[in-house]
Amino acid sequence: EKANLALIFDRYKGLIAGLPKQKGWLTESLYMYQGHWFSPTKLISIGTVMVSQELFQANPTDIYLVTQPKSGTTWIKALAFAILNRTRHTNVPTHPLLMFNPHDCVPYIENEVLRTKPTYSDATSTRLFATHMPYTSLPQSIHDSSCRIVYMCRNPKDVLVSLIHFVNKVRDKSLDRITLEEGFEMFCKGVSPCGPYWDHVKGYYKASLKHPTRILFLTYENMKRDTRSNVKRLADFLGCPFTEEEEAKGVVEEIVSLCSFKRLSDRNKHGTIREGLPNEVFFREGKVGDWSNHLTKEMGQILDEITTQKFRGLDITF
Ligand code: A3P
Asked: Where does the secretion signal sit in this chain (predicted)?
């Protein structure tokens, strides 16, 4: 089937060219596919979403970590990986998270479908994947299977600021930098990678109410506030709760520390991830509320108003 990829991509070309288009973040343009904005090329693109929808097969024991870009993907990847693999890798210098970027430990579905050799060759192991796909665009086999989904979102003001910094580090050199004002305007209009931001969050929030045992809804802010309880909650949800003995031995604290911003960012000052981006671009401040150092008060208020209006009636707080 992999041999058909080139053909499939070719088939998508015409389709993509006919889609609504806006100025892009990472690439020159973003295109709207199934109600959300994606790049036409680059790592996670419309093409890879389409291939995933066509070819990706979920297993009932799979675990999917879903985020919008800049909502804490790197962190949740590290946490889930550390929790699931805690008996295989104890907290020693050779722990994969201290050898590799979390993005190299947990593949995106959107990249996995392009690999000739699957990441998980052992049919009995739990497969841990990540994705940025909106709920309604997930491959049908994920909807049809009983696999678990962890969704993490982050307050839109910090997502926006994080996104502007990130894209200006990695976008094509031939393109101008995205200014704060420009980025703000695009984001408010809903034009952001995998956005509209609010629709992405709402899709998973509503699904988590409908399928509470299958979908866990987390926020970056809550994870920051109390990482320990959230790590335990995550382990419970993933079906591997900490034993009393583990708790007494401080295993939860070890995982929190292993995945801390300081530890991971120190490890990732050099080198690149498999897909070529520098390791360091995934670590900037790692704080809640850094938006206030960049956006004006007014910009913050406007985003708050949009968020209040879009999330009306839903219990989503940051
Ligand atoms: P800032 O730019 O606000 O610092 P993603 O992983 O989805 O790309 O999101 C990146 C954001 O998560 C960045 O936010 C980054 O600094 C922050 N981040 C990365 N690793 C983290 C960690 N271990 N703990 C907390 N935040 C982290």
From this structure: none
Q: Is 264 in the pocket of ligand 1 (CB under 6 A)?
A: yes
In ligand 1, the atom with minimum distance to the C-alpha of 259 is: 23
Report which residue type is found at 54. Answer: E
Told to judge if 200 belongs to the known catalytic residues of this protein, a careful annotator would answer: no
Bond from prior residue into 69 cis (ω within 30 degrees of 0)? no
Whether the CB-CB separation of 258 and 82 falls below 8 Å is answered with: yes
Q: Quickly state the pLDDT bin for 7 (edges 50, 70, 90).
A: confident
What single letter denotes the amino acid at residue 234? L
Cα 6 to the chain's mean position, in Å?
A: 26
pLDDT per residue as tens digits for the range 228-269: 999 999 999 999 999 999 999 999 999 999 999 999 999 999
* Amino acid at the residue 274: R
* pTM of this structure: 0.96
Whether 9 lines ligand 1, by a CB cut-off of 6 Å, is: no
Residue 174: both structure tokens together:
């031939």
Q: Could you give the CA distance from residue 264 to residue 167 in angstroms, rounded to a whole number?
A: 21
